[in-house]
Amino acid sequence: MYILFLTLLMIISSVQFSFAEDRILNRQVLDSKSNKVIFININRKNLQNLLDIDAIKDKLETTGYVAHMNIRGDKGTNDRRSYASMGSGSRVNVTKDEDEIIFSSLTSEQKKQFKVDTGVEPKEINYYNINRSINENESNNEYGSTLGVLGQTLSDNGLKTAVLGNSDIVETVNGVDTVVKNRNLCLTAMDNYGRIDQGNVDDINIDDNTMPFGISTDYKKLTTQTKEFYNSSDVLFVDLGDTYRLDIYKNSLNEETYEKMKDKINSKINKYLKEVFGMVSEGDTVYIVSGYPSTIDYKNRRRLSPVIKFKGEEKGLLTSNTTRREGIIANIDLGTDILNEFGLKSDLMIGKKLNYIAKDNNIDYAIKENKKQVALSLSRAAVINTFVIVVSASWIVAAIALGCRSRFSEEAKAKVFKVLKELIKFGMIMPFAFMVAGLLNQTSQMGVTVGIFAVAVILYGIGRIFIKDDFKNMGTFALATITLVIIDTFCNSVIMRNDIMSYDAIVGARYYGIGNEYEGVVIGSAIFAISMLLNLKIIKKWMITPIFLAILFCSAYPSMGANVGGAISGSIAFFLFVMLVYNVKIDFKKICLLGFSAVAVVAIFAFLDIKLGLGSHLGEFVHRIFLNGPHEVIMTFARKIQMNLKIAQTSVWVNILIAGIVLFAISMIRPTGMFLVFKQKNPEIFSGFIATTVGCFVTLLVNDSGIVAAATASIYIFIPIIIFAINKMIFDNQKS
Fold first, then answer.
1. pLDDT band at residue 587, thresholds of 50, 70 and 90?
2. Which DSSP helix (H) or strand (E) runs through 451?
3. Residues 6+ away with beta carbon under 8 Å from 481
4. Which of the four pLDDT bands, split at 50, 70 and 90, describes residue 630?
5. Which of 360, 379, 408 is at the close of a domain?
6. Would you state the torsion angle of the CA atoms of residues 564, 565, 566, 572, taken in this order, to the nearest 10 degrees?
């Protein structure tokens, strides 16, 4: 069986890998060092703002690839973490927000001190207090990341970097104007020691009282020095600081003066970019990036920043194996992609090179996709919290009502529990409804919310009309849910990425496959659906093993579901269910066998991930183990425990669910009373409850959002039991 399973994995892998390659335009990596890279940072702009600049808008009509970029750093999100993560190729920490990051040309004394502090000779531009960020990152980084990988790799291969411009502002303290230096783009360009070969970050601004803070970038000097450093360097980073200054200064302006300043800045940038586009050679690459969103965009959850890459004469969208999503990349991909332009790579980077997808309407697609992600993000908390509150409250009310049932009249009892029962069953419908609603592809917060409500009501109505029996009704929705999840994994998760209960590209914890919420749904719905089919004699016992293997493959395979926690907890829960159905006695040896099966499944998927170069979360985890040693396993599980503790402290409803899991687990292991009756009448379903409960406990241990996964899986335990209790205690008694 395992040989057949492995063969199936290899066949489908090759087919999927070929299909994925066909969708990506093949682009040749340039070997020649004569080709240059120019990285222009127009900070605090969204894609629509960038289109206000004629030079960008006109060029995008015929060429250019666009995407929106996740800006997440390690343990937080801000400008400096995002820029540092670009240069690291992984999420990193830098010094605390209150500490100034000082990049500049050093005096003779500062050069001596820099060498004493770092042990290396300074270059033209240096991060004077680099050790603060290095120590902060080494002490608190969750990913074992290294600062300055991009600059260091370029330097090691004889390539030079240069930085021009800054985002300095002026603060007035006690009537005295003080320049606050902001050279965060240098965090992207620097090497491991905070050094940059050349450039000008100190003397590039002029006094201009018509501009924010009375400062303006000297575009005449910038243009001249861009041409100079273009010739003397291989990668040139340019920070057009006026857009940053305007965003910071916005609250001091009225609408009219703000628009005038914005138009003036755009005009200067437009003239500068025309010079750049006219200067570059055919083989050069130009990135136009907004390293961080504007203040108002960030507050309104519009937190994906635009990236434009001009390379060749084609147009389309950017994607990467980090996100596997058209028009969405991560900041950690940019450093990797710059290296890739020179045929280089670094094992210290987990970001992936950018791929190109041809699309004529790339701008419209990118803007619409961004609106959709924002709408999902804005709606997520309210919708999911409502769902959780209604489901958990209905359970509590039902439990209290059952305990007080003797106080109701027979007529009132029938009405109350009939309504409660229908309300409780919505918990089984909603995971499926969330997925179906995702197909509506709504791009507004109202559209997302109304769409989910409408789909849920329609699905409930269909189930109510055509499936009268409670357990058949719940089993049907469980079967529909797991079926749609599996179909979606074959379709590159097109539904899951628009599902409000799934992952969030703006948060960036996961971009593809099956998220932690649906990891629990997969385990719970699959076991409950199969147990119902067995109970109704629709399938034979021998069929459940291949069915579970297929589900496990789809939910855990790196190019499909890609959920490592799901692979571990799912394999244990599924194999335990098979043992219970076949009445296998569970002893110590069988427990060890369950553990071995989980390890074997993960090992197989890890091997295939690395062998086929799929670059999923599992492959990255194994890569980090090889890179950082066995302690990476400890770090990873420590991070998972910390995340679960954080979720446990902030999500009251999950605490209730976990308490319920423990209580029901005890009741099922030592069944008495009603549970004993349930086990006798529905042995397959009862076995499913035990297997799902074990799956819940396992996922708590192996997943960084294990509490959430356990909570969603427990829906398929609690609801059937509560429904059975209501039918047994209320409606069966009324019949008798």
1. confident
2. helix 445-466
3. 431, 432, 435, 521, 525, 529
4. low
5. 360
6. 110
* pLDDT tens by residue, 63-109: 999 999 999 988 778 899 999 999 999 999 999 877 889 899 999 99
Inside any domain, residue 454: no
- Closest of 482, 478, 549, 532 to residue 686, by C-alpha: 532
For 98-152, write each residue's pLDDT tens digit: 788 989 999 999 999 999 999 999 999 999 999 999 999 988 887 778 999 999 9
Q: Taking a C-beta distance cutoff of 8 angstroms, is the pair 352, 328 a contact? A: no
Beta-strand runs (E) in 323-434: 328-330, 354-358
Q: How far apart are CA 716 and CA 432, in angstroms?
A: 13
- My answer on whether 257 and 120 are in the same domain is yes
Rg (CA), the chain: 29
Task: Give Cβ neighbours of residue 243 (< 8 Å, ≥ 6 apart).
Answer: 42, 43, 44, 45, 265, 269, 290
554 vs 522: CA distance, rounded Å: 10
CB atoms within 10 A of CB 211: 20
Residue owning tokens 């080494």: 138
- Which of 308, 325, 360 is the last residue before a domain boundary? 360
* pLDDT at residue 715 tops 60: yes
Closest CA to 500 of 520, 524, 517, 482: 517
In whole angstroms, give the CA distance from residue 431 to residue 101.
46
Q: Provide the phi-psi class of 524: left if phi over 0, else alpha when psi is between -120 and 50, else beta.
A: alpha
Residue 619's identity, in one-letter code, is G
pLDDT tens digits, one per residue of 520-564: 899 999 999 999 999 999 999 999 999 999 998 888 877 787 777
The reply to whether 15 falls in a domain is no
Residue 466 lies in a domain: no
Please check the confidence at residue 490 and state whether its pLDDT lies above 60: yes
- List the structure tokens of 638: 């420590």
Same domain, 186 and 49: yes
Each residue's pLDDT tens digit, 388-397: 888 888 887 8
Cβ atoms of residues 34 and 275 within 8 Å: no
Core vs surface per residue 399-427: b (16+ CB within 10 A) or e: eebbeeeeeeeeeebeebbeebbebbbbb
Residue 587 maps to a domain: yes
Considering only CA atoms, which of 325, 314, 424 is closest in space to residue 373? 325
Distance (Å, whole) CA 698 – CA 713 = 12
> Could you give the CA distance from residue 228 to residue 422 in angstroms, rounded to a whole number?
73
CATH of the domain at 152: 3.40.720.10
Structural domain that includes position 36 = 31-360
Q: How many domains, the chain?
A: 2
Same domain, 127 and 271: yes
% of the chain beyond a pLDDT of 70: 85
pTM of the complete model: 0.87
Pairing of strands 328-330, 125-127: unpaired
Identify the H or E element spanning 341: none
